[in-house]
């Protein structure tokens, strides 16, 4: 990758800026980055955000690790607050977008819908972020306790115990398996799948495939691939990538849900002193809701963003049909304030959009630094903030060698296989049973691929990030927070992943 000229203006150079490698691992076009920065401005994480060369960076408003205050008194458990107080508001913001008539709306009306709904979506999204902040202390209590009693391995044991019950995003993997089973049971669909006729699969009316596909797309409508990438269509808009995933799933071995959580809990009980058991039980009781809530709200984040995409996608299509744009996706290369004049026909943005697209393509090839501004290292950020350490992977790791890449052990076990370096979900279609997935980060739509691969390696994340949680759910080894695995590991190389030691050995 090319080095990036990331230079800060004087007004912000005196602050710490941290690249958001989980939610925004790649350079974004202007509209996607503007929406993400608008969400951050609402304040649940206590962070300001700014875009440099298309990459989103966050800066704490107070000292790193300072949690934002609550605007209303807390009551009940975190899970109760999520399900009874926050989720209804999130669902209402989502449904407000879903019920709109986009087919008959004019370009100006579509801009108005987006402008009207952006604020409610930002507020709803911040309810999902606030729920993660509220969950933090309970997760920290279990991790801190086990690290003090059992040393460095206590953190991974705590994370493994926390993964516990089944999650909303793991259910996505089962739904893809149901889709694959329906394809195998439908003669025409099975033949088209084998031939790679994905458009035929999409349009097939043969049962039971047709009904199962309709059910899947309805259940998972609007779930975009990555939180910040508003410019990328979800499966419900473009199901062809889903067809490729179904073909990969048909040939993959079936995996049952991992029992690692129960085994880790039992191991800890045998290793603790008797007088520590009561405190351990109390910490488990408080933290049981962590994974179900953290994964459910992650899925709703993606649905919110996918729904916000609806008026923009319709606007792009309308403007392309009228010759204003060369491609419907050009709309995402506008700034928010440019939408209305372009829709009204008072601003010709064709040349501007083309140049911005070229610049974005150059930005995607850049390597962004982990931090900017104040000379504070990434691992020092983790020492200030437990959330940064456990969710984002702000921890010290060993420098890579010619044969070993180090990261954070996030799901125990050892696996050897072919490394597949995949930088976006679109590239994942070639994954085969037993491959080792090496990627920047994952989000819920990546989850079905974890039923195919034998191990997972990511550039970003800590022991409580989405990738780590789902790897433990599927019982495969995982190393996260490597920073540069997608650059250091060659696609097709044979590697051994040790999810306990946190290493990837290139054979």
Task: Characterize the structure shown.
- With 507 residues, the chain is of the alpha/beta class.
- The chain has a domain at 392-506: Glucose Oxidase, domain 1, CATH 3.50.30.
- Helices cover 49% and strands 11% of the residues.
- It contains 19 helices and 14 strands.
- The chain has helices at 10-13, 30-41, 78-98, 107-150, 153-163, 168-184, 187-195, 198-203, 209-219, 240-250, 260-271, 277-287, 290-321, 339-344, 350-364, 378-384, 386-392, 466-474, 485-488, and strands at 2-3, 16-19, 47-52, 55-60, 366-367, 371-373, 404-406, 408-411, 414-421, 436-439, 455-458, 478-480, 494-498, 503-506.
- Strands 7-14-13-9-10-11-12-8 form an 8-stranded mixed beta sheet.
- A hairpin with a 4-residue loop joins strand 13 (494-498) and strand 14.
- The longest helix is centred in the N-terminal third of the chain and has 44 residues, at 107-150.
- The two termini are 23 Å apart.
- Residues 63-70 have low confidence and may be disordered.
């Amino acid at each position: 990758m090319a080095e990036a000229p990331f230079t800060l203006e004087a007004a912000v150079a005196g602050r710490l800026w941290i690249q958001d490698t989980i939610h925004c691992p790649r350079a974004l076009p202007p509209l996607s980055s503007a929406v993400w920065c608008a969400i951050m401005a609402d304040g649940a994480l206590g962070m300001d955000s700014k875009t440099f060369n298309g990459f989103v960076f966050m800066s704490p408003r107070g000292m790193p690790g300072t949690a934002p205050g609550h605007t209303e008194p807390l009551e009940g458990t975190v899970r109760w607050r999520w399900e009874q107080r926050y989720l209804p508001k999130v669902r209402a913001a989502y449904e407000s977008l879903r019920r709109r008539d986009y087919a008959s709306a004019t370009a100006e009306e579509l801009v108005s819908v987006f402008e009207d709904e952006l604020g409610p979506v930002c507020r709803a999204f911040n309810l999902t972020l606030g729920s993660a902040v509220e969950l933090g202390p309970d997760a920290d209590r279990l991790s801190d306790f086990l690290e003090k009693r059992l040393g460095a391995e206590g953190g991974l044991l705590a994370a493994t115990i926390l993964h516990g019950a089944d999650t909303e995003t793991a259910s996505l993997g089962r739904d893809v398996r149901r889709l694959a089973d329906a394809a195998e049971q439908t003669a025409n669909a099975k033949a088209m799948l084998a031939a790679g006729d994905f458009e035929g699969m999409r349009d097939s009316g043969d049962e039971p495939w047709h009904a199962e596909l309709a059910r899947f797309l309805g259940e998972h409508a609007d779930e975009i691939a990555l939180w910040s990438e508003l410019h990328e269509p979800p499966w419900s808009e473009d199901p062809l990538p889903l067809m490729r995933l179904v073909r990969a799933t048909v040939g993959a071995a079936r995996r049952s849900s991992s029992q690692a959580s129960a085994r880790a809990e039992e191991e800890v009980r045998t290793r603790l002193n008797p007088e520590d058991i009561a405190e351990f039980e109390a910490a488990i009781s408080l933290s049981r809701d962590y994974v179900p809530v953290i994964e459910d709200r992650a899925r709703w984040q993606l649905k919110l963003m996918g729904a916000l995409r609806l008026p923009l996608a319709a606007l792009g299509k309308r403007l392309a049909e009228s010759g204003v744009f060369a491609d419907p996706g050009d709309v995402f290369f506008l700034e928010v304030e440019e939408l209305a004049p372009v829709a009204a026909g008072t601003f010709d943005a064709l040349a501007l959009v083309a140049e911005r697209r070229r610049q974005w393509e150059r930005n995607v090839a850049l390597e962004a630094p982990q931090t900017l501004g104040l000379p504070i290292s990434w691992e020092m950020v983790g020492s200030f903030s437990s959330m940064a350490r456990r969710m984002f992977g702000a921890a010290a790791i060993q420098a890579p060698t010619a044969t070993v890449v180090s990261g954070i052990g996030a799901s125990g076990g050892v696996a050897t296989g072919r490394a597949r370096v995949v930088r976006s979900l679109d590239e994942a279609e070639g994954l085969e049973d037993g491959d080792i997935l090496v990627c920047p980060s994952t989000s819920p739509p990546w989850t079905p691929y974890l039923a195919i691969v034998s191990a997972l390696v990511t550039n970003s994340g800590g022991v409580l990030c989405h990738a780590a949680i789902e790897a433990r759910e599927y019982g495969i080894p995982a190393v996260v927070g490597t920073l540069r695995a997608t650059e250091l590991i060659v696609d097709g190389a044979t590697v051994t992943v040790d999810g306990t030691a946190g290493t990837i050995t290139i054979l």
